[in-house]
Specification:
The protein is α/β, with parallel strands linked by helices. It has a single domain, classed as Rossmann fold (3-Layer(aba) Sandwich), CATH 3.40.50. It is 46% helix and 14% strand. The protein contains eight helices and seven strands, in the order E-H-E-H-E-H-E-H-E-H-E-H-H-H-E. Strand 1, helix 1 and strand 2 form a beta-alpha-beta unit. The longest helix is centred in the middle third of the chain and has 26 residues. It binds nicotinamide-adenine-dinucleotide (NAD). Nicotinamide-adenine-dinucleotide binds next to helix 1. It comes from Rhodanobacter ginsengisoli.
């Protein structure tokens, strides 16, 4: 059990990467608290995890990560349910098409709100709890887009670069306070989840796979568990000397 005794909080866990990370951490011994704006969706994921384990290892709650007050109340709920908090996974995120001219300021603020402001809020309000359960770990889900911009995806690219930078500030601040809370970002390339589905709808299956795998040395899309295994490592004490890292889970895409 690589994360036995860990108590993990995961946002955006109604599907895609968040649900896969929750399943993976629970399978390896963690207690997990899942939230999403989609209440029914996240409840179903939590129930499936509990059914798999035959006992309660997962709790769920509705949370819009943009809501500052909700961050405080939901973290208190998680702390009470699990008896502490030692892992935070800031996973919730949204995409938006648009170049710098076509993008409206409202759309810019909406995407930055979910992808960046919410990660800041999560770190800010979870840190006091994480400090009580050292060694602790914060995992922020960024993207390949932090290194290589996706065309016509301006605000998303900027938001994911901001997440990578914020991650390093949190990591260095904790280290300088001599607090054993590590903070790292994960950078997936393309995985077929809700956020990538519009490309499949727009281009059709074959063309979408062709386009999305074009710059990937390993010549395939990622799978949700490729990211979940990375999160498992960063959540566990196996990664105890890893902080402020940008872990690429991209089939080599950022190298070429
Ligand atoms: P997804 O759309 O399947 O999952 C995102 C989840 O976040 C959804 O369940 C959604 O309901 C939730 N969410 C959206 N807005 C929210 C809000 N305001 N408050 C709370 N929850 C909210 O997509 P995914 O691929 O699983 O995305 C997870 C993360 O991975 C995102 O941060 C995304 O940017 C990142 N990512 C995904 C890929 C990929 O190819 N799928 C690649 C790189 C990074």
């Amino acid at each position: 059990h690589r994360v036995a005794g860990k108590k993990a909080f995961i946002t955006g866990a109604a599907g895609g990467l968040g649900a896969a990370i929750a399943r993976m951490l629970a399978r390896h011994g963690a207690l997990v608290f899942l939230t999403d704006i989609d209440e029914a969706g996240v409840r179903a994921v939590g129930e499936a995890i509990n059914a798999e384990h035959g006992r309660t290892v997962a709790w769920t709650a509705q949370q819009n990560v943009r809501d500052e007050e909700r961050w405080q109340s939901v973290l208190a709920e998680a702390d009470a349910a699990m008896g502490g908090l030692s892992v935070l996974v800031n996973n919730a995120g949204i995409g938006a098409l648009g170049g710098v001219e076509s993008l409206t300021p409202k759309e810019w603020a909406r995407v930055m709100g979910v992808n960046v402001d919410a990660v800041y809020l999560g770190c800010k309000y979870a840190l006091p709890l994480l400090k009580q359960h050292q060694p602790a770990s914060i995992i922020n889900i960024s993207s390949l887009a932090a290194f290589k911009v996706f065309p016509d995806y301006t605000v998303y690219n900027a938001s994911k670069a901001a997440v990578a930078s914020l991650t390093k500030s949190v990591a260095v601040d904790c280290a300088s306070q001599q607090v054993d809370v590590r903070c790292n970002s994960i950078h997936p390339a393309f995985i077929r989840t809700g956020i990538v589905e519009p490309f499949f709808e727009q281009l059709g299956e074959q063309e979408a796979v062709r386009k999305l795998t074009r710059g990937i040395p390993l010549k395939r899309l990622g799978e949700v568990d490729d990211v979940a295994y990375a999160a498992l490592y960063l959540a566990s004490d196996e990664s105890r000397y890893i902080t402020a890292a940008e872990l690429r889970v991209d089939g080599g895409a950022s190298a070429v």
